[in-house]
Design brief:
about 525 residues, alpha+beta, eight-stranded mixed sheet, six-stranded antiparallel barrel, 14 helices, rod-shaped, transmembrane, WH-like_DNA-bd_sf, Tscrpt_reg_LuxR_C, transmembrane helix, transcription regulation
């Protein structure tokens, strides 16, 4: 707008807005519409989705809980295994001392072995009842018949297991899986349908490691085995092995607890969540690979996961990806304390099928897209409404300025209403045709004076505007591009002191009514 004194206001409401304020409102809405379009684009590409971070937080929380649970369970079993070792050691010493026998006297004496096992079974049952395990055992380095071919790996001992497990809190009958018949009958135990009198130590990984262990604290000799099959059964178990020493400190055998695959699955059921069913497992880890063949899996309900093969790990920012048999799982893992017989670190893992996460992410993305699309439509509608509201008063103001009716309605735009009010006030005062009010004369003179700075091409374009041509028309008439015309426009606006095409048209109309238009177009000359 021209930087000059404001025209006198006649009957103009004080709250009318300016053209500049209307333009600010309009462009603000357009900026918001562009922002909505950007949000829509980011939503479609998934950049704005918080699903990955939220899933990572959920998986990390679940993983921390599971790791703490696994660690607590293994620590508790280790402590109970050490207590059982001390009980077996003490009972062994008392048993041999009361008979003035050496440990080697147990070999080739089935009756003596049965008597010792009978004495130790109550301690095993007590430990079993107070532990979160599916079985307990002890194995001493002696055999009932050293002449047998398998005598080097066949060792006396008792192995008790729960029969008919149906929950994580086992109860009911206890079966004697290994041990003498006389010892089982003396304690009222039924024999397992795959019973054998002695244990095959070749099937216990780490047995020899424990037997050759030398140290002061039993905790230093404790080992966990990988998942191993129970002989002649369909079950798999992992065993805790604790050294059993005599009074001189010599390791005479091992004892410990059993965690069967069935019991582990019952103890660690899947956890349902918004991303699907979280599965828990304990697995030896070799580099970036989980050895599922040696792992213990919790319940796998709702997934196709099984304890076979290997699972590759790919680290990520929010979560890790686990690949098993070309199937992807997502989750977290961490190494927990626990010494394995094969030397591999033990990882506690929490994961969920990738499909569940993808479904959740897709739902979240659809929500973002719909929200952004609604925002964009709303902003475009508001921009269109404001544009219409901005342009219509200008048109009405021009019509009112041309009209001689005295009951015209204000347009709501201050500059247009001031001009219209002035023209109508002059009509009421019936001024002479040749005289102009000093305010209008000042505006006209200043505008004409500014026009002297226009170039020839700019003056030609200004004339075309005065004759009613649009930008595209002028482009064709002058054989130049629309962009070039718009470039000249910016120079014309700057030199004349106006800020928009509508403002320029308004002033051209004023000059036409004052019969000073030609003077402007000629650059100040008559």
């Amino acid at each position: 707008m021209l930087r000059s004194r404001r025209l006198a206001k006649t009957d103009i409401p004080a709250g009318n807005r300016s053209i500049g304020r209307s333009l600010v409102l309009y462009w603000l809405c357009m900026a918001l519409a562009m922002l909505a379009a950007a949000l829509l684009l980011l939503s479609v590409t998934g950049v704005l989705s918080r699903t990955a971070r939220q899933f990572g937080e959920t998986a990390a929380l679940q993983q921390n809980n599971n790791a703490a649970l696994f660690t607590a369970q293994m620590d508790a079993l280790s402590a109970q295994g050490i207590e059982l070792s001390e009980t077996v050691s003490g009972e062994l010493e008392r048993f041999l001392a009361s008979r003035s026998l050496s440990f080697d006297a147990l070999n080739d004496d089935p009756a003596l072995i049965a008597e010792l096992e009978t004495a130790l079974i109550p301690s095993l049952e007590t430990t079993m009842a107070g532990s979160t395990c599916s079985g307990v055992y002890f194995c001493l380095d002696a055999t009932a018949n050293t002449s047998l071919p398998q005598s080097k790996t066949s060792r006396m001992g008792v192995y008790l297991r729960y029969s008919g497990l149906r929950s994580a809190h086992p109860s009911g009958s206890t079966a004697c899986f290994r041990g003498t018949v006389d010892a089982a009958r003396a304690n009222g135990l039924q024999l397992h349908n795959r019973w054998n009198p002695e244990l095959d130590t070749s099937l216990i990984p780490g047995y020899r490691q424990v037997m050759t262990w030398e140290g002061d604290r039993l905790s230093g000799g404790c080992l966990w085995t990988e998942r191993v099959p129970l002989l002649d059964t369909w079950e798999n178990v992992t065993l805790l092995c604790v050294p059993v020493r005599d009074g001189s400190g010599t390791v005479r055998g091992v004892c410990g607890m059993e965690l069967s695959e069935l019991y582990f699955g019952l103890s660690h059921s899947t956890v349902s969540g918004p991303y699907g069913s979280f599965v828990m497992l304990l697995a030896p880890m070799n580099g970036d690979t989980l050895l599922l063949d040696k792992a213990m899996l919790g319940s796998t309900e709702g997934t196709n996961l099984s304890a076979s093969g290997e699972m590759k790990i790919r680290g990520g920012r929010d979560y890790d990806t686990f690949i098993w048999n070309d199937t992807a799982y997502l989750g977290k893992y961490q190494i927990i304390p626990g010494r394995l017989a094969d030397g591999y670190p033990l990882a506690a893992v929490t994961l969920v099928p990738e499909s569940g996460y993808r479904n959740r992410a897709q739902s979240a993305r659809i929500g973002w897209v719909l929200g952004s699309l609604g925002f964009l439509v709303g902003m475009l509608a508001l921009a269109a409404a404001l544009s219409r509201r901005f342009s219509m008063p200008i048109t009405q103001g021009f019509a009112a300025a041309r009209s001689q009716e005295q009951d015209w309605q204000p347009t709501g735009i201050r500059e247009i209403d001031e001009l219209t009010a002035y023209f109508h006030s002059r009509l009421r005062e019936r001024p002479s045709e040749d005289a102009l009010p000093w305010q209008v004369e000042s505006l006209v003179s200043e505008l004409i004076d500014r026009a002297k700075g226009l170039t020839g091409t700019e003056r030609v374009i200004l004339r075309y505007y005065a004759e009613g041509y649009a930008v595209k028309d002028i482009s064709g008439l002058l054989f130049i591009s629309v962009g070039t015309v718009k470039g000249h426009n910016s120079h014309i606006y700057s030199k004349l002191g106006v800020n928009s095409y509508d403002s320029l048209k308004a002033y051209l109309d004023v000059l036409r009514r004052c019969e000073r238009l030609e003077e402007l177009l000629q650059g100040g000359g008559k």
